[in-house]
Amino acid sequence: MQKKTAYSFPDEILEHVFSFIHSGKDRNAASVVCKSWYEIERWCRRKIFVGNCYAVSPTMVIRRFPDIRSIELKGKPHFADFNLVPDGWGGYVLPWISEMAGAYPWLEEIRLKRMVVTDESLELVAKSFTNLQVLVLFSCEGFSTDGLAAIAASCKNLRELDLRDSEVDDLSGHWLNHFPDTYTSLVSLNISCLGSDDVSFSALERLVGRCPNLRRLLLNREVPLDKIANLLSRAPQLIEFGTGTYAAELRSDVYSNLAEAFCNCKELKCLSGFWDAVPAYLPVIYSVCSRLTSLNLSYAPIQNPDLTKLVSQCPSLQRMLVLDYIEDSGLEVLASSCKDLQELRVFPSDPFGEEPNVSLTEKGLVAVSSGCPKLQSVLYFCRQMSNAALVTIAQNCPNFTRFRLCLLDPKIADYRTLQPLDVGFGAIVEHCKDLRRLSLSGLLTDRVFEYIGMHAKKLEMLSVAFAGESDLALHHVLSGCESLRKLEIMNCPFGDKALLANAAKLETMRSLWMSSCSVSLGACKMLGQKMPRLNIEVMDEKGPPDSRAESDPVDKLYIYRSVAGPRFDMPPFVWTMDEDFASELS
Amino acid sequence: MENSVAYEKATELRLGLPGIDEPAVLSSVKNNKRSLHDEKSGENGKSAQNETAPPSKAQIVGWPPVQSYRKNNFQQAKKSESECGGIYVKVSMDGAPYLRKIDLKVYKGYPELLQVLENMFKFTIGDYSEREGYKGSDYEPTYEDKDGDWMLVGDVPWEMFIRSCKRLRIMKGSEARGLSCSGV
């Protein structure tokens, strides 16, 4: 084979070629071809994704990539969403902002997920990045509307401000007033998480009125229904809209204004919000329904038949989020009406109730799997399941990429045979060869993990709770799942053996979370000594681990690979098991 | 895949397993800063005959995996939310430099509420009558309801009031009098 030498390609040509490669993975691959490609690539990389903010340091990123325009950072582990990560754990963005302020003055996009963002950080962002166009704070916390005011006042080129699911300290709704009158570039605004009873509505109206490119507007719960029509009439070009509270006394003027406003939004494709929705006002959106591709009713306590009637009018739906009020009957209607459905999420209306309050069972999911050939992504909360149903679902939907089943009673068996649900989930991983994400629940033995290790070759993220009987289960997963990046486990009888036997595997993954399992302190220390490129963090609110025996199980364990070494911003209840820790106790 | 024998050999290091068969059932406390305590269940739960597993009385931390903003959001919508958090509303008084906030849930009725307001802002409210509103003082307690209308405190039953009150304002002077003599 003829060998083409690198010097026949001028750098500019390579750089031009690289400019067509956008995916981080592909760029990473290109960068390890040879030294010159590494060099050229790093100078022209503009976008970077850091899946774990502690895996690398800002200094290292800046050193390698001198001219980044877009950064995405993730902080806390996923189980933080369910209150399993105590306050103060970490995930602070300030060190990143501080260093990037000097290094990346032309930064355009900042996307953060599960990070602690303070007002100080936001003020620094506002001051340092005059060209900021996109700021996404997804499930973040630690800031107030003061920080937002700083952003509004300074970021003249801001197109997108998205605070989805963040916890914001609402000090005043007047932060919206800080957008100058000359500011007209807003394209996307998501303030749905704001709880303030003081979102300055007039400032919002004026802002919406002067931004002709506004395409996405997600309001917070406090915006009353009778203000919506006015707002929509100022932005008929919206593609995505989230209402506030969708409840009010039925008044014909409000009703007709709303209906007209929605009717005039000819490009509206996505609707959400609908807090406290009352059926009386649902028909105002009927004119939009035929065009809707995404509908989020997961905050709406509407029940059948109103709910089903609404759903039946949306034949173009691709994405549906709803409460279990839809019941099996409503899902059957969904299955027959919405042939383009790709994603379904059904949330529990009464997650802690002991008795079922709705008639939502496995039958609903089976119906959708059968009627919707494009179904790829499922999140389903229900109270009963059978292996037979899961097998049917798997056979109906071999294209699943995400399958998350949550049985409210976490160790419930197949309700028909009283067997574990091993076979059912086994069918899912066997038939769905492209499955990237899986969440298990129900009564499960080591068997299901054997199936997962055997078949789930593309699986990247696995969530496990109250499952398995022994370390063999964990071993199957760690040794069999070649693409595994994130593994999170709670309340399973997994201990040291599998972990130690598969220590090397952990370096190929982003992270492993284990809480309320049986991993001993001694094993953690051993891992810490053996694997210098892993951070082994032990969390225990009861006291320092060295006050207990080596064989005592640790409360929470978070292991992640890192080239930055152990972190130094840990709270008192987190300890890193590294060489220092182990040696100082021996 | 590896059979059990190979697996055993692969694990050179043998550390004694603590030998907990049953995963722990944890009791939950509302916020993140909680102390967990384990309860080892006495029996071996591996057999499949139990349909209902952990004792359902204790809420398990992290299960079901519903994000807190969803839980909070939905609890506020539930009609029968007596366990839910307080109903905090801002209270302003004409002429006072800053506002206060009170929890309407804490009070049992109008007399208590009015007493608290009087103490908080150091003034006296007159006597309430359905026909004439508050007589005998320059101040009138008013509130903004869910529809955005300003109403006189005391006209509707207490339960209805706390459900519809968004904020309170203690009006002073002629504006106040206008409200009590048949509203606009």
Could you please describe the fold and organization of this structure?
The complex is a heterodimer of chains A (586) and B (184). By secondary structure, chain A is of the alpha/beta class. Among the domains of chain A are: 6-44, Monooxygenase; 505-585, no CATH class. Helix content of chain A is 32%, strand content 17%. Chain A has 22 helices and 23 strands. Chain A has a 21-stranded mixed β-sheet, with helices on one face. Chain A has a two-stranded parallel ribbon with strand order 5-7. In chain A, α6 packs parallel to α7, α15 (387-396) runs parallel beside α16 and α16 (422-431) runs parallel beside α17. The N and C termini of chain A lie far apart (58 Å). Chain B contains five helices and seven strands; from the N terminus they run ααββαββββαβα. In chain B, 23% of the residues lie in helices and 18% in strands. The termini of chain B are far apart. Chain B is elongated and about 55 Å long. Chain B has helices at residues 4-10, 68-77, 110-121, 158-164, 174-180; strands spanning 88-93, 100-103, 127-129, 133-135, 139-145, 150-152, 165-172. By secondary structure, chain B is an alpha+beta fold. In chain B, β5 (139-145) and β6 (150-152) form a beta hairpin. Chain B has a domain at 88-177: Phosphatidylinositol 3-kinase Catalytic Subunit, Chain A, domain 1 (Ubiquitin-like (UB roll)). Classes of the chains: A alpha/beta (586), B alpha+beta (184). Chain B: InterPro entries: AUX/IAA_dom, AUX_IAA, PB1-like. Chain B: This is Auxin-responsive protein. Chain B: Residues 44-53 have a biased composition (Polar residues).
Q: Gyration radius of chain B, to the nearest Å?
A: 29 Å
Q: Tell me the number of helical segments of chain B per DSSP (H or I, 4 or more residues long).
A: 5
Sheet-strand content of chain B, in percent, reads 15-25%
**Number of DSSP-assigned strands of chain B:** 7
CATH class of the domain at 88-177 in chain B: Alpha Beta
Structural class of chain A: alpha/beta
Tell me which CATH architecture of the domain at 88-177 in chain B applies here.
Roll
Tell me the major beta sheet of chain B: 5 strands, mixed
Question: Main sheet of chain A?
Answer: 21 strands, mixed
Mean pLDDT of chain A: 94
Principal-axis shape of chain A equals globular
CATH topology of the domain at 88-177 in chain B: Ubiquitin-like (UB roll)
Largest interface: A-B, 81 and 58 residues
